[in-house]
Design a protein that fits this description.
Layout (H helix, E strand, L loop, with lengths): L1 E7 L2 E6 L8 E11 L5 E10 L2 E10 L7 H9 L9 E8 L3 H5 L5 E3 L5 E3 L14 H14 L5 E6 L5 E9 L4 H8 L5 E4 L7 H7 L4 E8 L5 H17 L15 E3 L1 E6 L4 E5 L6 E2 L4 E6 L5 E6 L4 E7 L3 E2 L4 E7 L2
Parallel strand pairs: 2-3, 5-6, 5-9, 9-12, 10-11, 11-13
Antiparallel strand pairs: 1-2, 3-4, 4-6, 7-8, 10-12, 10-19, 14-21, 15-17, 15-20, 16-19, 17-18, 19-21
Length: 333
């Protein structure tokens, strides 16, 4: 544990987290990451619930993409369920891992290196302390000073990007049996068997031997009570299964659809999009799934499903530029 003498709003500031050094109980910190272009430190809120008994270290993070705030509500609503007196193990909670992106309601990590740069922080792990990229340096500090040695299991909470919607959906590397186990505990509508993306938290955690899921919880920039309830229940199921708390596993009567291939239906010209299908709907090859109209209301294009599948994502913002996704399907091949 590396502490500083700083206290902000009564909360101590740390430079490195080591939960093994903490006594049992509830702890709040600001984690001191890298500095911005004005020399001010990015400070990330961290909550640690250290159990009275030894057990699993569960790390839960939200909003590494700054517009994907749903997981913050999940974390806030989870807190009343966590009692250190009866807890076996430790729960680390980060409600907002990308403060500068959050301030802009942006998916990206903004920096001022050689003009404004917007970087996908969830492609930069585990980072580089000597990089010319501010985002890579920030990722390095998160990975090495906040994540490492504090996680046996990692749940990274996301949503779809601004202008699009997911159901509750998991990216899960099914080649790892512990990842399969984690996925089976979430009340998810859909799961993609996925080999991962280099630089993402989930993929790099699995490569480091730490079972991890990317948990997608609906739409960006909103708190959806249904998604909150399901996200909380998935975490409680995980804690029950890993003997961190007593209780019963509840999948909320949801049977997950598991696919291994996603197919995007995109537009080649701009206009006003109208999806004609709903999330989790089964569609058939050739079925019309969306239309595009011009400013006069004329239908300029109809878009059909190129294959059978289940609707994984739809656009929620009508204005679509060329190349934009209208509908995304999940299927098994």
């Amino acid at each position: 544990m590396k502490t500083t003498s700083d206290i902000i709003d009564g909360v101590p500031v740390i430079e490195k987290l080591s939960v093994d050094e903490l006594p049992s109980g509830k702890h709040r910190f600001f984690f001191k990451a890298t500095t911005d272009a004005l020399g001010n430190y990015h400070r990330i809120p961290v909550i640690v619930i250290k159990g009275r008994y030894e057990g699993t270290k569960l790390f839960i993070q939200s909003t590494v993409h700054g517009d994907e705030v749903q997981g913050i509500d999940v974390i806030h609503q989870l807190l009343p369920h966590l009692n250190p007196e009866s807890l076996h193990g430790t729960v680390v909670l980060v409600p907002g891992a990308n403060p500068p992106g959050m301030q802009l309601a942006s998916r990206y990590f903004p920096s001022q290196n050689d003009g404004q740069t917007l970087t996908n922080l969830n492609r930069m792990m585990p980072g580089d302390a000597k990089s010319s990229s501010a985002a890579s340096r920030f990722a390095y500090v998160l990975w090495h000073h906040l994540y490492m040695d504090n996680a046996d299991i990692f749940l990274d909470l996301h949503t779809q990007s601004t202008g699009t919607a997911f159901p509750m959906f998991l990216f899960a590397d099914y080649r790892d049996e512990e990842v399969r186990r984690l996925a089976s505990l979430q009340p998810a509508d859909q799961i993609k068997e996925d080999d991962g993306i280099d630089g993402s938290v989930e993929t790099e955690m699995v490569a480091a031997g730490i079972p991890s899921l990317t948990v997608e919880l609906g739409c960006a920039n909103v708190f959806d009570p249904d998604m909150t309830a399901r996200g909380v229940q998935g975490i409680l199921n995980t804690m029950v299964n890993y003997s961190m708390i007593d209780g019963e596993i509840d999948l909320m009567s949801i049977e997950s659809y598991v696919g291994n291939d996603d197919v995007s239906i995109t537009t080649d010209h701009g206009g006003f999009a109208r999806p004609l299908v709903k999330l989790n709907e089964d569609v058939s090859e050739g079925q019309i799934v969306a239309t595009m109209t011009n400013a006069f209301g004329d239908v300029t294009a109809e878009f059909t499903a190129p294959c059978d599948g289940r609707v994984l994502s739809i656009c929620t913002t009508p204005l679509r530029e060329p190349g934009a996704t209208l509908v995304q399907l999940l299927r098994r091949v």
